[in-house]
Amino acid sequence: MFTVENDGCEQVSPVASLIKDNLSWLQANGSPIWKKVDLKLFHDETPERMSQCVSQ
Predict the structure, then answer these.
(1) Cα–Cα distance measured from residue 16 to residue 42, given in angstroms and rounded to the nearest whole number
(2) Interior/surface letters 17-49, b for 16+ CB within 10 angstroms, e for the rest
(3) CA gap 50, 44 in Å, rounded
(4) Pairwise CA distance, residues 51 & 36, whole Å
(5) Is 1:15 a contact under the CB 8 Å cutoff?
(6) Pairwise CA distance, residues 23 & 35, whole Å
(7) Residue 40: helix, strand or coil by DSSP?
(8) Spatial contact of 11 and 51, defined as CB atoms under 8 Å apart
């Protein structure tokens, strides 16, 4: 998922939260592509590169 600089977070944040909160279910029951998602990779990312929607 990606956003552009001027996107409003009111639409992005709820979707991102649903994915984050249900990632283990998606990995067990969803498309095989979900098994490749590793949110730990984002912990080392610099804040300047992250969307402001991520922290909401």
Answers:
(1) 13
(2) eeeeeeeeeeeeeeeeebeeeeeeeeeeeeeee
(3) 11
(4) 21
(5) yes
(6) 9
(7) helix
(8) no
d(CA 44, CA 32): 25
Number of residues written out for the chain: 56
Give DSSP secondary structure letters for 10-31: HHHHHHHHHHHHTHHHHHHHS-
pTM beyond 0.70: the answer is no
Distances (CA, A) of 56 to 9, 11, 27, 30, 42: 8, 11, 23, 25, 15
pLDDT in tens, 2-46: 666 666 778 778 888 888 899 999 999 999 999 999 888 776 666
